[in-house]
Amino acid sequence: MSATERIKALVQGHPVVLFMKGTPQFPMCGFSSRAVEALKKVDAKITPVNVLEDPELRADLPRYSDWPTFPQLFVNGELIGGCDIVTDLYDSGELRRIVAEAQKDAV
Questions:
Q1: What sequence ranges are listed for the domain Glutaredoxin (predicted)?
Q2: Using one digit for the tens of pLDDT, what is the confidence trace for 32-85?
Q3: What are the binding residues for [2Fe-2S] cluster?
């Protein structure tokens, strides 16, 4: 399976996917850490993907999503954005609604 096929399977197979550097327990960059913290605060049940462990996936994801940086948050197969967008959505209260709706549909 190609990296693009794996990305597609991940984002279509899980309601909330965060492609990040490191893991939620040990983020390897400040942006990934801030995105994880915002998602934790809204009780998101994320499927984390450590792009540092998969160079092919890390190289293909920006082409797949048309988003150049990490982290990248996908909800219900759709790119939401990176750290700044995730934190802005958290600050506005929208992140909680988006995540809750996605997780409700997944139950």
A1: 16-80
A2: 999 999 999 999 999 999 999 999 999 999 999 999 999 999 999 999 999 999
A3: 29
Which residue from 71, 81, 85 is spatially nearest to 32, judged by alpha carbons?
Answer: 71
Give the whole-angstrom CA distance, residue 99 versus residue 80.
11
Residue 27: φ, ψ to 5°? -65, 145
Q: What are residue 74's DSSP bridge partners? A: 17, 79
Name the binding residues for glutathione: 21, 58, 70, 83-84
Cβ atoms of residues 20 and 51 within 8 Å: yes
pTM over 0.70: yes
Which residue type, as a one-letter code, is found at position 1? M
Instruction: Give me the residue spans of the domains in the chain.
Output: 3-106
Binding positions are 21, 29, 58, 70, 83-84
What are the start-end ranges of the E strands in 4-86? 16-20, 47-50, 72-75, 78-81
| Half-sphere exposure in the Cβ direction for 69 (13 Å, CA) | 10
